[in-house]
Specification:
about 500 residues; alpha/beta; Rossmann fold; 434 Repressor (Amino-terminal Domain); 3 domains; flat
């Protein structure tokens, strides 16, 4: 499935290729690059006028004098190609920013009104926001004010039970009265934030608009969040304008950004409405609500990754002290399959594997070259099934593994012996690599040699076999399509290696 990042990243990469080897930037050699960017913007359903204004600004900046930038305190003169990338990055950040993810939480209680069309994800986003506020020490109350869709009330109640958050609803009570009573109930029960989930429609109509206007007038919320589905493309921008004219919302939440190529609303809606993107919502998990960071989104679009966002996500799901102990253990090369499982569970919490990889520098821009099966989250499930068929001893001390044990494991998880052997090979390679890395980190001269080998940003050799991502296979970077003869030779080599290991075990 092609998403916003795939479409735009491909366009910007093609633009960079068009400028490769150019000694200077001119209107003539810049034209093909700008055409590539324009095509990708329109394919992603970015508003035409927004795209034109963006390209004009990029062109003006790119044709200006190349100003040296400071890196680690030193001035570095950029190549024309890099100067173009910097111009695109800066203009993308300006287009989507400045960032303002704050919520006005003063008042007893603070009120957040959630508005938007039916199917935009208001109810799920209300739950995600409640969970986020709980993490900040708040005590939210959810109000189910969508009386026209019984499933919405029940959905909010299910979410409330998952979070341990009370949900206020009274059958046959009208939305305005529900909102008023919900705020009064929160005040009397000691809840300090009220999140009101309002009704939506399949399209804007006067009844819908008047109802949310009346709710706003009744409860005077300091936060009105417009929840919009990125997949509806240009309709998202038009809908946002209509809601803003009637409600003057304070910001919006963009959902389903991972859905398909029509996510260009992320680049248009701020420019058109002047209102900030507060949060991005992806997936159904209640912790999948992230603060909007224009820099992170711009870097991902340009294939530069988003290390800051990735680290922030990682820190949400990992205890720092535990992570440091695990890292030391891995660098000694004495980890087992239990540690393997722990890493995979962390990865699953952080989101889809494709999304995680897109945020890693150098890898994010190569996703279209990596086979789909290598980024298939089901591969993690298959790996977990194999490890789940191992005994406690085998998970703790993988060196006891032999042919008989592998056959039993394969039978227990419904996989082939080759699958089990392949996983074990990758595990041993990863363990050896981490042990070698640990040795290098204790030896300054070796570390310098390794950095030189990496060639200033080529990536760590063999990272494709890192233990946290067994589904990625044993090679770093995209796979090369092998000929039939090469495949036979590879299988013979793997078979010989397995026989050698069996002889050693005996």
């Amino acid at each position: 499935m092609t998403d916003l990042f795939d479409v735009l990243t491909k366009g910007f990469q093609n633009a960079q290729l068009a400028l490769r080897g150019k000694a200077r930037l001119s209107e003539e050699n810049l034209a093909p690059a700008l055409r590539e960017v324009r095509t990708s913007l329109l394919q992603a359903d970015v508003d035409l006028e927004v795209a034109r204004a963006f390209l004009d600004r990029v062109k003006t900046k790119a044709l200006g004098d190349i100003v040296p930038v400071r890196v680690s305190g030193q001035k570095v003169r950029l190549s024309p190609q890099d100067w173009f990338v910097k111009a695109c990055h800066d203009e993308l950040v300006d287009l989507m920013g400045p960032v303002d993810t704050s919520l006005e939480l003063s008042g007893s209680p603070a009120v957040i009104l959630m508005v938007g069309l039916q199917g935009s994800g208001k109810t799920t986003t209300s739950g995600k926001l409640a969970k986020r506020l709980m993490g900040e020490g708040k005590k939210p109350l959810l109000v189910a004010a969508d009386i026209y869709r019984p499933a919405a009330v029940e959905q909010l109640r299910v979410i409330g039970r998952k979070l341990g958050v009370p949900v206020f609803h009274v059958d046959e009570m009208q939305p305005v009265q529900l909102a008023l009573q919900g705020v009064a109930h929160a005040r009397s029960s000691g809840r300090d934030v009220v999140i009101i989930d309002t009704a939506g429609r399949l399209a804007i109509d006067e009844t819908l608009m008047q109802e949310v206007v009346n709710i706003r007038s009744a409860v005077s919320p300091k936060n009105v969040l417009f929840v919009v589905d990125a997949m509806i493309g240009q309709d998202a921008v038009r809908t946002a304008k209509s809601f803003d004219e009637r409600l003057d919302f304070t910001g919006f939440v963009l959902t389903k950004l991972d859905g398909d190529a029509r996510g260009g609303a992320a680049l248009s809606i701020k420019e058109v409405t002047g209102k900030p993107v507060k949060f991005l919502g992806q997936g159904e998990d209640l912790d999948r609500l992230e603060e909007f960071r224009p820099e992170g989104l711009a870097q991902r679009i340009l294939g530069m990754g988003d290390v800051v966002g990735l680290v922030q996500d990682f820190e949400k799901h990992v205890d720092r002290e535990s992570a440091e102990k695990d890292a030391q253990k891995m660098l000694r090369g004495d980890f087992g399959y239990d540690d393997f499982v722990k890493q995979m569970q962390t990865i699953r919490k952080m989101g889809p594997l494709r999304d995680i990889m897109s945020r890693i520098p150098m890898i994010g821009g190569m996703l279209d070259q990596i086979p789909e099966e290598a980024l298939d989250d089901r591969e993690l499930d298959r790996t977990m099934a194999i490890i789940g068929s191992m005994t406690n001893q085998e998970r703790r001390t993988p060196d006891v593994m032999n042919a008989g044990r592998m056959a039993r494991i394969a039978k227990g998880c419904g996989r082939t012996v080759d699958d089990v052997e392949s996983l074990h090979e990758r595990f041993l390679q990863a363990r050896q690599m981490m042990k070698g890395l640990g040795s290098m980190m204790g030896n300054p001269s070796q570390m310098a040699a390794m950095q030189q080998m990496m060639g200033g940003g080529g990536g760590m050799p063999g990272m494709g076999g890192m233990p946290g991502m067994p589904g990625m296979g044993g090679g770093g970077g995209p796979r090369k399509e092998l000929s039939a003869q090469d495949k036979i030779a590879r299988r013979k080599k793997q078979k010989a290696a397995r026989k050698a290991r069996k002889r050693n075990r005996k």
